[in-house]
Specification:
The complex is a heterodimer of chains A (113) and B (113).
Chain A (H helix, E strand, L loop, with lengths): L3 E3 L4 E4 L4 E7 L6 E7 L6 E6 L4 E3 L2 E6 L4 E6 L8 E10 L5 E5 L3 E6 L1
Chain B lengths: L2 E5 L2 E4 L5 E8 L5 E7 L5 E9 L2 E4 L6 E6 L2 E6 L8 E8 L8 E2 L3 E5 L1
Parallel strand pairs in B: 2-11
Antiparallel strand pairs in B: 1-3, 3-8, 4-5, 4-9, 5-6, 7-8, 9-10, 9-11
Classes of the chains: A mainly beta (113), B mainly beta (113).
């Protein structure tokens, strides 16, 4: 089983649609959670952190369910510029007390006019 | 503010040739440093990470090695490249506190022919 699992998509939605991505993680010791965005042939960039109480940043809402080890990202009023791959990322303690980010393979979003 | 640099941006190398990719971070001290590889259409694979000068942890057995000769310098090397070493190589840094996110450099796109 992968440590972080995501539906690869692609999700093909019209402008203005609401779309939701889900992610599950396997290590219950994971401590922090993030959504990254990666444009084609570019480096991943932090979109938002995910907090237990849920958090919102403009059109983006992230939720965390520690009991179910489940993370979600909701995008409202989709824009063409939202087209990208969205990576679910989990920060997990390593053997030497360092931390490692474990990346999901990403969910691809295509927003059409 | 912190910045992370990688070079070269693009590299085409023959099979069997050596490799040296460099990553430097500015604006922070004692960062955790990471090397990832992303094959075409795939997720990020953690190759190496370092919590300090001279400290390297390898995640997967492979044809590559890493070194950290200075606090903010991280080098990825190979003595003899394989075709399977082709990919997008990303360097990232994170503060040593562990609960933070990672920030990525612009990446090096390597093609081994």
């Amino acid at each position: 089983r992968k440590e972080v699992e995501q539906d690869p998509g692609p999700f093909n939605v019209p402008e203005g649609a609401t779309v939701a991505f889900n992610c599950t993680y396997s290590n219950s010791a994971s401590q922090s959670f993030f959504w990254y965005r990666q444009d084609c042939r570019k480096e991943p960039k932090l979109l938002m952190s995910v907090y237990s109480s849920g958090n919102e940043d403009g059109r983006f809402t992230a939720q965390l369910n520690r009991a179910s080890q489940y993370i979600s990202l909701l995008i409202r009023d989709s824009k063409l510029s939202d087209s990208a791959t969205y990576l679910c990322v989990v920060n997990t303690p390593g053997m030497d007390s360092s931390y490692k980010l474990i990346f999901g393979s990403g969910t691809r979003l295509l927003v059409r006019p | 503010s912190q910045t992370i640099h990688q070079w070269p941006a693009t590299l085409v190398q023959p099979v069997g040739s050596p490799l040296s990719l460099e990553c430097t971070v500015e604006g922070t001290s004692n960062p955790n440093l990471y090397w990832y590889r992303q094959a075409a259409g795939r997720g990020l694979q953690l190759l190496f990470y370092s919590v300090g000068i001279g400290q390297i942890s390898s995640e997967v057995p492979q044809n590559l090695s890493a070194s950290r000769p200075q606090d903010r310098q991280f080098i990825l090397s190979s003595k003899k490249l394989l075709l399977s070493d082709s990919g997008f190589y990303l360097c990232a840094w994170m503060t040593g506190t562990g609960a933070e996110t990672q920030y990525f450099g612009p990446g090096t796109r390597l093609l081994v022919l």
